[in-house]
Design a protein that fits this description.
about 350 residues; OB fold (Dihydrolipoamide Acetyltransferase, E2P); D-amino Acid Aminotransferase, Chain A, domain 1; 4-stranded antiparallel beta sheet; 6 helices; 22 strands; NA-bd_OB-fold; ligase activity; RNA_ligase_dom_REL/Rnl2
Amino acid sequence: MSSRKLVSVQEITNIEPIEGADRIEVARILGWRVVVGKDMHLKPGDRVAYFETDSLLPAYDPRYKAFQARGQKTMIVGSMEITGHVLRTVKLRGVYSQGLIMRLDELGFRYTPPVGTDITDKANVLKYEEPLPMGGAQIGRFDAPCSKSDAPRLQTLTDHWDEIKTLKAVPTVKVDGASTTLSMDERGQVHVYSRNWELDSMSSNMRLAKRFQLDKMLWPGMAVQFELCGPGIQSNRLKLPAQRPFVFAVWKDHHKIDRDQWPTGMPNLAVPELDENEWALTGSVDDMIAKVDGLRGNVTKDRLDEGIVWHLREDQQLSEGLANELGANRCFKIINNKYLTKNGL
């Protein structure tokens, strides 16, 4: 899967009551739980449009007019400024609700597409991104010898859970920052990227990478991906005293390599690695999500961690379906629900 399906056609697998609630209930979709109104009259087997969290519902689109009163954010896309409501994780009557369910006819569909169909473009939805701490200019599109860093959440992989549990995976802490890619081309020139853009040498991302000498650890055809964290970035939710990189992936010629193959120096700047036995992939998807809920203290003492990313070891064969879902990144994540709700994410 080359890009995240923000809006897709999915089937409701179950409807669950909420204790003491007369007007709302929980709809289960894949591994997600979504609080919905009983007046929607949803039932198992219904196909609906499912919107993932981080979806920005544009204010100019009349289909989303009713959502704008719940709060708006503005994002710069190219030369355009787009305002809309952003879907976040919320807790209602003690239940985490993640995402949004709408009927397909509300989006203008006169037919029912197959389950799994990506309808992000037809829904006119964008992924909300917080402003970049660039201090420089965008000079081109993302063109690094690696994939963009956007691991799918385990909730979207429920159909592959039995296979995932048989695989070897390295659990690492997901660190909240501005994702950055640094690469060296075949001529030895270093480039820096954030999200979809290449940034110039004056960007904060490049200056920090050079301060920690990440550029000197690369060789041609290599890329390193890290979270730029600290004061002035993503509200510095981890309360770090100074800006620093947390390396989470290293690539050689579009191939992600295991940590024991990283160049000297990079492991010293890596995101924290967790105990493989403690965080073995066992039980149900719900069990794993509940276990991550409340994770804290692995980056900053006593502070909540954003979550966990499991990186599959490279010497393993995956089914075609799972390989397509994970792409070349070969990793997936669970985000800490307590972290999301505490920070309004």
